[in-house]
Amino acid sequence: MSYKEKLDIGKIPAHVAIIMDGNGRWAAERGLERTEGHRAGVAAVRKTVEAAVKLGIKYITLYTFSTENWRRPASEIKALMQLLMDNIGDKIFMDNNVRLRVIGDMSRLPLPVSIAIRALISKTENNNGTCVVLALSYSSRQEITQTVKDIVLKVKSGLIAAEDITEDLISRNLSTNFMPDPELLIRTSGEQRISNYLLWQISYSELYFTPVYWPDFNEEELCHAIYDFQNRERRFGKTSKQIAENK
Ligand code: IPE
Ligand code: IPE
Ligand code: MG
Predict the structure, then answer these.
(1) What is the pLDDT at residue 89?
(2) Does ligand 2 have an atom closer than 6 angstroms to the CB of 64?
(3) What HEC string does 45-114 produce?
(4) Sheet containing strand 131-138, strands side by side
(5) Any catalytic annotation for residue 164?
C-alpha cells in the first residue's frame, strides 16, 4: 500500500515547511553540472506543489535560497536566478488556485527577478487554495533581527509599551505573520540541520529528515513524510496519559 493511501485525510498539516536540499549531489552522482541538479529541482517543486494542492495543505514554505547562499560562486547564483526567472510565470499558480508569497530580503535579488515575482504575487493575490511561500534570500536570524528593530521602533514611538511584548506579538511582527507555524518540517538529502530556517516558527514542529535528494522528491515522498508525522504523538510538554485523555 502506498503512503498516499495510508494517509488520514482528516489530519493533514496546515503548514509544511521544506528545506529542499541535495540538488548538487544529485547532479554529481550523474556526472552533471550542479545547475542541472537545480533544473531537476524545479521539476520536483512543481510535483510537490501539485501534491500539496491535492492534499489540501494550506501553506507550503519552500527554502529556495538562503542569505548564506549568496556566498556561492557567482556562476551558480546566476544560474539559480535565471531558473527562477524562467519559472516564475508558471501557469501552475493560476491553474491550481495557488497563491504565491515570499519571505526574505527581496531587495538583494536582481531587479528583473524581483519585478517578475512581485507581479506574480499580485496576480495570485486572490487565489484561495494552497499558499506557496518561497523563502528567498531568507535567513531566520536576519528576520528575527529585523523584527526586533521593528518592535523597538514601535515602543520608541509610543505605539506599544514594552509590557505589550509577548510571544504572540513577536509572531505577529515576523514576516510569516500571515500563516500558522509549520506542524512539519522536512529536509531532504540526509543533512540533519536547520541552516537558519524559521527558527522561531519551528519551536514545536515535527522534524522529518529523508536521505532522498530534492530532485527525487515527489508526491509519494511527501505522503511518506506526512504519514510519519501523523503517527507521532505531539505532547507539547504534557504526558502521554494527558494526551490520551484529551486533558
Ligand atoms: C539545494 O541544493 C538548493 C539550494 C541550496 C539553492 P544544493 O545546491 O545545496 O545541493 P547540495 O547540498 O550541494 O547537494
Ligand atoms: C539550505 O541548504 C538552503 C536551501 C535549501 C535553500 P544549503 O545546502 O545551503 O545548506 P547548508 O549550507 O548545507 O547548511
Ligand atoms: Mg545543500
Answers:
(1) 82
(2) yes
(3) HHHHHHHHHHHCCCEEEEEEEEHHHHHCCHHHHHHHHHHHHHHCCCCHHHHCCCEEEEECCHHHCCHHHH
(4) 99-103, 131-138, 59-66, 15-19, 184-187, 206-209
(5) no
Residue 90 — very low, low, confident or very high, per pLDDT cuts 50/70/90? confident
Which three cell numbers, joined as nine digits, stand for 55? Answer: 492534499
Active-site annotation holder among 69, 87, 196, 218:
69
Distance separating the N- and C-terminal Cα atoms of the chain? 34
pTM above 0.90, yes or no: yes
Torsion of CA 115, 121, 125, 129, to 10 degrees: 160
Mean pLDDT of the residues in the chain: 97
In the beta sheet, which residues pair with residue 103? 135
3-state DSSP call for residue 194? coil
Task: Say whether 218 is catalytic.
Answer: no
pLDDT in tens, 13-49: 999 999 999 999 999 999 999 999 999 999 999 999 9
**Sign of dihedral through CA atoms 92, 140, 187, 204?**
negative
pLDDT of residue 132 exceeding 90: yes
CA of 210 to the centre of ligand 1 (A): 15
CA distance 158 to 247: 40
DSSP β-bridge partners for residue 62: 18, 134
> Which residue ranges have their beta carbon within 6 Å of ligand 1?
20-25, 65, 69, 80, 189, 214
The CB of 193 under 6 Å from ligand 2? The reply is yes
Helix (H, G, I), strand (E, B) or coil at 17: strand
**pLDDT score recorded for residue 185:** 99
Per-residue model confidence as pLDDT tens digits over 47-68? 999 999 999 999 999 999 999 9
